[in-house]
Write a structure and sequence with these properties.
globular; Rossmann fold; six-stranded parallel β-sheet; alpha/beta; 2 domains; multifunctional enzyme; binds guanine; oxidoreductase; three-stranded parallel β-sheet
Length: 296
């Protein structure tokens, strides 16, 4: 093992402290604290856990959390009516509708209904477009968290070769846009890419976001590469009946070759909620016509 572990948990804790420290100035200027509304439709246990931890983290940062739990058989019209109400609510700066949604609801229609200036998930096409053309907007939390970890580790990324594995709208595509914005030479690889190991071997920076357990092997990497593992895959553990979490990167072999790598868990995962709170605070400052604090 030679690679340094990139401690996303520690970075996220520091970011959350900086956010909490910025809340009082907002409150003095506006008479209220930033507010995040989280909407959960149905009883998916994993989603319920995420929503609970988002609410807890929001309150810990000194912001207001508004949780809306709707039954699994909620109609699209009823959900759109709630989104409309949250769009108009001046105490709500950020709106997050937890995905996936039940089958009877069209996710794209719901995302399109969210005020782009409250879209702290960065999923609205207006925010995808702003990111693509370099205008201020909101960037999806996971890729923005990955960029923060990379810049913290490497400083200026200009001229570096970056390979993003995965082309989802939530991670791969916005990650590629962020790296391009940071002056990397960016390749997006995916399931149809020919000779993926050869493509990955070019990279100074590898971001793996494919959802395939331990797919990226150490001998795919250029020595000294920095590896960001976005994967969260539950696989059977050695002990009968137990499971364990692994990333999209085979940590043991990759750590022999990389200079730095995020672990799973404890790498990218903790960044997502911290960046959600960051986006909410930034939304609040922008909506109030105030300059958002630097360094967030
Ligand atoms: N479901 C899993 N991750 C996310 C996320 O980041 N945002 C939303 N809205 N739903 C999710």
């Amino acid at each position: 093992m030679s690679a340094e572990r990139i401690d996303g948990k520690a970075y996220a804790a520091g970011l959350r402290q900086r956010l909490a420290a910025a809340v009082p100035a907002f409150e003095r200027a506006t008479g209220r604290v930033p507010g995040l509304a989280v909407v959960l439709v149905g009883e998916d246990p994993a989603s319920a856990v995420y929503v609970r931890s988002k609410g807890k983290a929001t309150v810990e940062a000194g912001m207001a959390s508004f949780e809306h739990k709707l039954p699994a058989d909620t109609s699209e019209a009823d959900l759109l009516a709630l989104v409309d109400q949250l769009n108009r609510d001046a105490t709500v700066d950020g709106i997050l509708v937890q995905l996936p949604l039940p089958r009877q609801i069209d996710e794209q229609r719901v995302i399109a209904a969210i005020d782009p200036d409250k879209d702290v998930d960065g999923f609205h096409v207006a925010n995808a477009g702003r990111l693509a053309v370099g205008q201020p907007g909101f960037v999806p939390c996971t890729p923005l968290g990955c960029l923060m970890l990379l810049q913290d580790r490497l400083g200026d990324l200009s001229g570096m070769e970056a390979v993003v594995i995965g082309r989802s709208n939530i991670v791969g595509k916005p990650m590629a846009q962020l790296l391009l914005g940071a002056n990397c030479t960016v390749t997006i690889a995916h399931s149809r890419t020919r000779d993926l190991p050869a493509v990955v071997r070019r990279a100074d920076i590898v971001v793996a976001a494919v959802g395939r357990p331990e797919m990226v092997k150490g001998d795919w990497l250029k020595p000294g590469a920095v590896v960001i593992d976005v994967g969260i895959n539950r696989v059977p553990a050695a002990e009968e009946g137990k499971t364990r979490l692994v990333g999209d990167v085979d940590y043991a072999s990759a750590a022999e070759v990389a200079s730095a790598i995020t672990p799973v868990p404890g790498g990218v995962g903790p960044m997502t909620i911290a960046v959600l709170l960051r986006n909410t605070l930034v939304a609040a400052f922008r909506r109030a016509g105030l300059a958002a604090p630097e360094g967030l």
